Amino acid sequence: MASAEQFAEIRRLLHAAYADYRAAVDPQLFRVYLADVTGVTSDVVQGGAIPLVALDGGTIVGTARVFPHPQGLRLPDGAAYVRGVAVRPGREGEGIAAALMAACAERARAGGATSVHLHTTPFMTRAIHLYERLGYRRDPGLDTDSHEHYGLAVEPRLHALALRLDLTGPRRPPSA
What we know:
Elements: H1 7-18, H2 27-37, H3 42-46, E1 50-56, E2 59-67, E3 79-87, H4 96-110, E4 115-120, H5 125-133, E5 137-138, E6 144-145, H6 146-150, E7 159-166
Parallel strand pairs: 3-4
Antiparallel strand pairs: 1-2, 2-3, 4-7, 5-7, 6-7
């Protein structure tokens, strides 16, 4: 789990990892989205999130947050939620995100969750492929968009695809 002094480094990593998506989203919406995704503070920990980091020689190379008991999201009972998954640019493809996602699922399971949910966007194709490889499946009934989630009437809307991993079946090792 991340320490209080690592929050600033986590925010810098999130900004760097999400920078490539700036061109795919309306500028106003991107500012709001990035502020939301990078809002990692001690308040987030108090809000129930568990910030996780992947370290290489003391340097944060990846991060994710798992909410074992998320509040204010339209999710089924027993659901955990993952967000802010990021890998340091240049370190993609090394299994860092898969390891973080496995840690999120384990934390969720330990917290009594029966499923893990997340939202991603259609242009995050690498992330979608990773999540599918890890056993996540689309849950279109939980999709949302920028107007619904942020209250922004920006067009085109940013569509957020919901994915779900069931934790009640037998465990299967993630494929790298």
